[in-house]
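Q: My collaborator sent me two sequences in one message, no labels, and asked for predicted structures for both. Can we handle them in order? The first one she listed is below.
A: Yes, handling them in the order given. First sequence, followed by its structure tokens:
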Amino acid sequence: MLKVGDKLPAGSLQEFIEVEGNGCAIGPNSFEVEKSTAGKTIALFALPGAYTPTCSAKHVPGYVEKADALKAAGVDEIWCVSVNDAFVMGAWGRDQKTAGKVRMMADGSAAWTQATGLTLDLTARGMGLRSNRYSALVVDGVVKTINVEAPGKFEVSDADTMLAQARALKG
């Protein structure tokens, strides 16, 4: 399981791009995690699924609301990672008004999530293999803090906890 001091696993995540530019076409684009985190501070949070109750009502809105404060605390980018396809993550991002604040990163096959060791088997609930709910502050690809939720909980991976950790890291 991913822990403090680990490098994020190699692999790619997809993001639905709304506007063509910066070498990205409209639609799903693939990004290598190692390249995309190099030289940056990333506030990464992962969750079980797009449009699910806690994720839509609390998790994503908290990071959208705290985006400016996180950036002021030294965070370059905020990533929301979920085992959904890029089309679903793009639509969810539009609904949650994440543009310019939170990158909605898709791990459609769960390959990257499996590499983190933070999977959640929701097969019995008809959702298949998903990501556990967690957050991590990542600097240059290395995990500096990680907050993994207990099953069914939303207590430590929220935006306020991440903001406090980013401020402490900035010193």
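Q: And the one she listed second?
A: Here it is, processed independently of the first:
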Amino acid sequence: MGVLVGTTGQTIERRLLEETRAGHTYYPEPHRIFASLHDLAPGSVRVVILGQDPYHGPGQATGKAFEVQRGQSSPPSLRNIKALLARDMGHLPAENFNIGHWSKQGVLLLNTVLTVRDGEPESHQSFGWQSITDQIIEVVVRDVSPTVFLLWGGHAQKKESLISGPQNLVLKAPHPSPLSAYRGFFECRHFSRANQWLTTHGVPEIQWGSVE
């Protein structure tokens, strides 16, 4: 899946360079920033999970929303996603469960902002990433393949206006962070609801409990 970044991309590159020159560290590393798009063509996307911005601790962010690098403990948001998986689907995540493996089944794990300064959540909100992630979402929306969009949290739900067409379903819930998860995230049943909609439209369901 390709993204034309144009002038906006040049602006983001300049802002990231300024971060580095000012002595700031940002995540994920440059080669990981677009990892969520690797090996995913628009027609292969069955589910889009929209988060906020990357994890802001050292060695955590992978470029895929909510995924954490191997060897790192699960941040609270990921623990709450695992709890929803257990509650909704009856799957207790295995020790080697990695949410990033869902990408192999056509799940796009996309943050609305793709970089963040070390220790400062939402610090790159003004960099222009929203324009880039809007483009990514619009490419998926235009494809005729049935797709479910899981919008978790206020930042993700701002993207709802981009999503239209009978082939696309939008499901909304609070963000899985500890600050908001108890406002309805654990009751949203998004995994089973997404699978039900996919199978109704002739698309294989996601094996949410798979570790590979």
